[in-house]
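Hey, quick one: can you model this chain's 3D structure?
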Amino acid sequence: MSSKRQKSKAYKLDVKYEAKKASISIPPDHSIHQLKAMIHSQFNLKPEEQSLLCNGKPLCAGDNMTLKQAKIPNGSKFTANRIASSAATTPSNGKSAVVVEVDETFKKLENIVKNASEVIKSVHKLEKERRRLQNEEDLPTQGDPAADYKRLKLECGKNGEELIRLLESLDQMTFAEGQTEHRARRKQVATKLNYVLDQNDKIIEKLTLAIENSC
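Sure thing. Here's the predicted structure for all 215 residues.
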């Protein structure tokens, strides 16, 4: 009976916190909270103070999700960052204030990444709709195909505005010279957003041409 229901083979995860590194073994059906507890035991970094990067990307999964549900592959590389408690006191040398400022900026960067993902999905979805309309595979408004193109163009315009807003937020972020991972992550996100903005502009151009041809 027990041989039929064997436990999932443990994952091996490499975790880095500041200059320290550790290898953690954890079954894929364990939760993110359990992973954070293991990181706590390794680095003395409390779960509520942890901000995790998984293979270079912010871990957005909830604490109750399992590693498998969060689609974390075996052999993943984690980077742990400290999120300073709001109740932390600031010593006279001011070092704690710097840590809080950096961590708050990193949290804002994570939030931008999350919002950017939603906009990117929307851009891809609208491009698929445009292609379907162009191929006359999906025409909800039979009498006026231009109406569908105009609707898509309006949505693309909103995406463009949101992408520009996210890029402006990125431009306002500053990290210290030593925060190389954060600086690299910000540059990576900015490059991706600029690329998607360019793609969105091209979709708007195609939609404008389609509207003109439909009139």
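One thing worth noting: The CA atoms of residues 40 and 46 lie 5 Å apart.
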